[in-house]
Design a protein that fits this description.
- The protein is of the alpha+beta class.
- Among the domains are: 197 residues, 3-Layer(aba) Sandwich (Cytidine Deaminase, domain 2), CATH 3.40.140; 87 residues, Immunoglobulins (Immunoglobulin-like, Sandwich), CATH 2.60.40.
- The chain has eight helices and 18 strands.
- It is flat.
- The chain starts with 8 loop residues before the first strand and ends with a strand.
Length: 422
């Protein structure tokens, strides 16, 4: 796919581009672009090297006359068996699955199928005869479109629309555009969030529904058999008052019960005081080791051990900092000297390293091993790309593990690993 500058514009969260052939327009929501891109990158990172292609059906509305006008509001992915490799090539069972998804989409108006999409990871640019056959079988309308997407690991993916030029589809799109919402609209700090309604064709921003406070807990009422009227809101919110005691007539006092006679007092017996106990003085006994020579010898060795430790620790630390540690098959350049860092930019993750490092300037080969979620991908770096000092990767998950491996012509190697989180 030959890269050409985008010719469209963005209005109210929708990317607008010319219908293939220069007549009419195609409108596609930025939110749909990011959702399709997530599916494409998930397949792209599922396998090493080229990844797996994905495809599906575009949903929306269209007006064929006088000029085609296509509006893409949603999409339906089609899962295939990949019996013919990682390319999006349909087997007989996949054709039946594609037809079932298409019929299911047609049974939910007002959105209808307006075309199809496919990611493209093959070396040869453009669509194939099998793509034309599938498009001719399932999308015979003159206003149906084919969206071809080219994913990239180190820069923004691109895409372009195809439509019938006479009877058949052209091989490559006439123009392409960056297939990412933030690349089309730089004012977006993150992918646009819009919501689509199947009973209408416009696009509205998502608004969170107002939070509903839970009703106040019901106050338990005593079961007195009397039907009470419901309390108003102000009465229910008012604090409960303790009921005042009822005024009743005094009841006649009962006669006092007879009390038992008091017990006689117990006589107190006084005992003579005990004679004082004599206190004897206690003198502690100390055991003194008469072997003065033995204690003197242990004292000298203790002070000597402390002196060796006090001198040896600083000396070893300075030797460790001054002399690099070299092991067989490794380079003396430590991973920290590669200066591997990652930061978030509009187009994805900018991965930087120290291009002035000696092992970078003498490198024979290098590679980036990227663990994106559950997928692992290896990107080979040419000497020119390595000496540039940076590259850009477009993630498909919120956590990416990045490992830089460098091999020099002399057999030395270095590596460094970092983790980036969104």
């Amino acid at each position: 796919m030959t890269e050409t500058p985008p010719t469209g514009r963005v209005e109210a969260g929708v990317y607008i581009t010319a219908f293939p052939g220069g007549r009419g327009e195609v409108h596609i929501s930025l939110e749909v672009i990011d959702r399709i891109l997530a599916e494409v990158l998930r397949g792209f990172g599922a396998l090493p090297k080229r990844g797996a292609e994905v495809g599906g059906i575009l949903l929306g509305s269209s007006q064929p006359n006088p000029d085609p006008f296509v509006r893409i509001l949603d999409f339906a992915p089609v899962a295939i068996e990949y019996r013919r490799g990682p390319s999006f090539l349909l087997s007989e069972a996949d054709v039946n699955t594609f037809d079932q998804v298409l019929q299911e989409a047609r049974s939910h108006p007002p959105l209808k199928p307006v075309g199809c999409y496919r990611s493209h990871t093959r070396e040869a640019p453009g669509i194939t005869g099998e793509d034309r056959a599938v498009f001719a079988r399932f999308f015979p309308g003159a206003d149906d479109v084919f969206l071809l997407i080219r994913p990239y690991a180190t820069r923004v993916s691109t895409a372009g629309f195809l439509a019938r030029d006479g009877r058949e589809l052209p091989v490559v799109p006439a123009s392409q555009f960056p297939f990412r919402a933030s690349a089309l609209d730089p004012s977006l700090g993150r992918p646009a969030r819009v919501e689509f309604h199947r009973d209408r064709h416009d696009v509205e921003p998502i608004e969170a529904p107002p939070e509903k406070l839970p009703p106040p807990p019901s106050l338990a009422e005593p079961n007195t058999g009397i039907v009470q009227r419901p309390r108003s809101v102000s009465e229910a919110a008012a604090p409960l008052k303790r009921p005042e005691p009822l005024l009743t007539s005094p009841s006649p006092q009962a006669p006092p019960e007879p009390q038992a006679p008091p017990e006689p007092p117990v006589p107190q017996v006084s005992l003579p005081p005990l004679p004082p106990r004599p206190i004897t003085a206690w003198t502690p006994e100390f055991i003194i080791d008469s072997s003065e020579e033995k204690s003197s010898r242990w004292g000298v060795w203790s002070w000597l051990a402390v002196l060796i430790v006090a001198i040896g620790l600083p000396a070893g630390y300075f030797l460790y900092r001054a002399l690099p540690l070299s092991l067989p098959g490794t380079s003396s350049a430590a991973p920290a000297r590669l200066g591997l860092t990652a930061k978030t930019v509009d187009s994805g993750i900018e991965i930087d390293w120290n291009r002035t490092s000696p092992i970078v300037s003498q490198a024979n080969s290098a590679s980036l091993v990227i663990g994106d979620g559950s997928a692992t991908k290896t990107i080979e770096l040419s000497p020119d790309e390595l000496r540039s000092g940076s590259t850009v990767y477009e993630p498909s998950s919120n956590s990416v593990r990045i490992e830089l491996n460098i091999q020099s012509a002399g057999g030395a190697s270095a590596d460094s690993t970092i983790t980036w989180t969104r």
